[in-house]
Here is the input.
Amino acid sequence: MITSDPGGWAPQLVVLCVDGGKMYWIEKSGVGDFSTVFDHEVRSVVHELRTVFPSSTAPAHASFLTGFPPAEHGVVGNQFWDHNLVSDIRYRMANPLLHIHPYENRSLRTSSLLDDISSMGLSWAAVNFPHTFNVLKPLTSPSTYCLYAPKRILVLPMSGRGQSTEFFGEKVEFSFIRSDGTEECEIEVDGKIWQCGEEVRKFWIELFSGHLSVSARCFHNDQDDSISIELGTSVLVLSTSDFCENSAADEGPCSTAADYPLGEGINFFESPRVEWVTETALKALDRWHPDIIFIRYNQADHAQEYLYWLLARGNSAEQAQARYLIEKTYGRIAHNISLLASKIGPFSKYLLFSDHGIDWISTRVNPNAILRALSLEQCAIFQGDSNCAYLYSDEPLTGSDLERLRKYIEKHVPGVSLCGAKTELSLGLPVKSVRVGQVALIAASHIEFDYDAGDIFSRVHAASHGDRPRRSAMSGFLRSRGFGSIDTLDTVEDIHITDLRHIISGVMTSQLCAP
Here is the structure.
């Protein structure tokens, strides 16, 4: 327990996002319950936080920072484009680093809480928090952000001939060096030697774009005199200059095993680790002494995306296992936030929230397969979010082509509708913006858009967000300490994510003006 002022520095405000966090599990796991951390602390209330459409990470975080809906801040989905040609969109979609702009600060079309903070003469830092970074022209405040690349297996001939694999547009060469006759072997990775074995170990790869954290193990293939290198989900760390110096001793953000070994989660290693987020936040506080720090834990969202269908629709054994794994993830986040608070102390304000909720998905619809069915795929492409897909084309499609598209969807794609400006306006989307394309498709609940190659329909056991915010399943949560009546009164109703910029700015201004 923290019982007295440690006599040192502490940030004025700690903002913690538990991405996708649901009220039920936040309360059950004790995320942000500082009555277990500080003496004489009253357990704070967990509020429902209404979100925006589409109710996904990039647009909802933009609304958190700006206080506006997507119609004004311009972040209309987890993916969108401005004036890109169709061929350029296809090229960029192959590399996550080339389509990260919806999460960058440069995508905002309005001022934000970051501007408010600067105008108050305060400083800030951020860990894995959307819209606090830019890739090409970094912001002046310290921040770090993570992207991940999927698990893969490389087969290396013991003759020494190498094999390359691509991470974020950069080729990395792997080649076998030697083996000592046991399961251990040496491999060369872009000029550096790795000692690799059956036990999973962590390594760093230096890319032009940033530090890549990856776990690896190797095993011999006696039948063809080769070795296989299994690389887990790798994590690219994008940071402002000298945010936190990387070193070989640093554990790194990657994980060493699948955290959600059910359904589609069997190949996903949590990225970044919960503990890495906490450790990095503490390093940032120690190094930079910011007045405000923004920290995002995105692991609950990952757990739910892989497990929530099994919890809601699976058999009894699947439900029990999914519940255990989801609650375990929330428990790790709760423990780490309590640890973070115990290090920071009781003299800071804390605001915890989630940007959206989650619900189960049974059907995926590929809108680009619809374009193929109409022979329009060469001149147009759909991109967007889970429940809204935007049509981009080099030249506007003709009225007859749009009518063919509408009729095809009406006849062959139940649960999907082509919407006009009136619908976009009612959903809080900008009406005359290149970012929402020439037309938009809207998906019904329990359906999500999938933009990869494949058929129009696929049956899935999945979960997602992005649906209409009037559904409480899409709501996040709000929990606070040091924010007055919001902390303890459960009568506070109808809090919207667009309210939080004003609430935070008001509290910080009052604190600065206090005698």
